[in-house]
Design goal:
The protein is mainly β. Helix content is 1%, strand content 45%. It has two domains: 224 residues, no CATH class; 64 residues, no CATH class. Strands 2, 3, 7, 8, 9, 10, 11, 12, 15, 16, 17 and 18 form a twelve-stranded mixed β-sheet that branches. It has a two-stranded antiparallel ribbon with strand order 1-4. A two-stranded antiparallel ribbon has the order 5-6. Strand 7 and strand 8 form a beta hairpin. The two termini are 54 Å apart.
């Protein structure tokens, strides 16, 4: 039984400093507890803990009943400031800035996260690696797709030798810093023109990330990475691809060689930037009819995307995050909106 709680409060006030100057002040605080499970059936991958079976760093532990899966985030203060200044009877200048925190860490209790299990996946395996690259194991057959056996977990299991899908302790919440500046001018009694700038910076954008990637610096080894070598975990790991006498060299060169793939779901490692220029023209006609045209030119750049199926596990996200930096999938470079209103 998964459990998560949310708390929040805010205050906001408009201050009329003078006839020309108005200031808007606000502060919002939000706190969402990390996920916990009543019976301790979820766990956390501890990056620096030592696995007692292999002596390597990296260890999965099931949480105690009711224990948080990740560290709490209690510093989620979001200040707001807005300033409006009337230059003259026809011109107003406005600027504002604010910080908005995500109310939770984007991990959902559905089939894509907890519903599919957050720790172990028994791997289809037909046998020890073949000395010939890209060749099925000698004697392997789909009549026995789990030739390396199945993992039967209990509360002491660390799931070495398996694929891992889990959270880590350090899981900060995403937040967005927004800022705007615009000038509004009455060209005539029935014609208004507004130009402005909008910017934002998103920090801790989340994306599923593979933590057990081989370093691209190993690529010069070429096909040698696939060659079978003696398995130092043979006899220690009794189920899964790492239970055979030999293993591919690339496996032993992983950051956590006692595990296969380690996917940290909704890993908050990404950033995004948005910058836009806006212009709006509003014309009033007789009998309360108003027509408005708004045009925006903008650019949205990110090095990851939030749960976007088109960009799962960006290439080389562990070693060179900037290699995935590009136009965000929701980027709309130009937008024109026409509207009208009648009394």
């Amino acid at each position: 039984m998964l459990d998560q709680k949310y708390y929040g409060f805010y205050f906001q006030d408009d201050i009329r400093v003078s006839r020309r100057l108005t200031v808007n002040l606000g502060l919002r605080y939000e706190y969402t507890t990390p996920w916990a499970e009543k019976f301790g059936q979820i766990g956390t991958f501890e990056l620096d803990a030592i696995d007692p079976l292999t002596g390597n760093k990296g260890l999965f532990k099931l949480n105690q009943p009711g224990e948080y899966q990740s560290d709490p985030n209690r510093r989620n203060f979001g200040p707001r400031l807005g300033i409006a200044y009337q230059l003259n009877s026809k011109t107003v200048v406005r600027t504002a800035g604010a910080i908005f925190h995500a109310p939770y860490n984007s991990i959902n209790p559905n089939s894509s996260d907890f519903g599919s299990g957050t720790f172990v996946q028994n791997t289809l395996n037909l046998g020890p690696p073949n000395p010939l690259p890209f060749t099925p194991p000698v004697g392997g057959s789909w009549s026995n797709p789990f030739a390396s056996g199945l993992n039967y977990p209990d509360r002491s299991s660390t799931f070495v030798g398996q694929n891992m899908r889990a959270d880590i302790h350090h899981h900060p919440l995403a937040y967005v810093a927004n800022w705007t500046f615009n000038i509004q001018r009455m060209i005539a009694s029935d014609l208004l023109v507004e130009v402005g700038y909008i910017g934002s910076k998103t920090t801790h954008f989340s994306q599923n990330r593979q933590w057990n990637q081989n370093n691209p610096a190993l690529l010069p080894l070429g096909s040698r990475l696939l060659e079978p070598v003696p398995n130092p975990y043979y006899g220690k790991i009794t189920a899964g691809p790492l239970s055979f006498p030999t293993v591919a060299l690339r496996q032993l060169l992983r950051p956590y060689p006692q595990y296969i793939d380690i996917v940290v779901f909704r890993d908050p490692y990404g950033n995004a930037n948005y910058n836009g220029f806006t212009m709006r023209v509003e014309k009033q006609y007789s009998q309360g009819f108003t027509i408005s045209a708004a045009y925006t030119v903008s650019k949205n750049i990110a090095d990851t995307v939030e749960s976007n199926a088109a960009a799962v596990l960006p290439v080389n996200a562990m070693y060179d995050r900037k290699s995935s930096r590009s136009l965000e999938s929701n980027d709309i470079p130009q937008r024109l909106v026409l509207s009208y209103e009648t009394a």
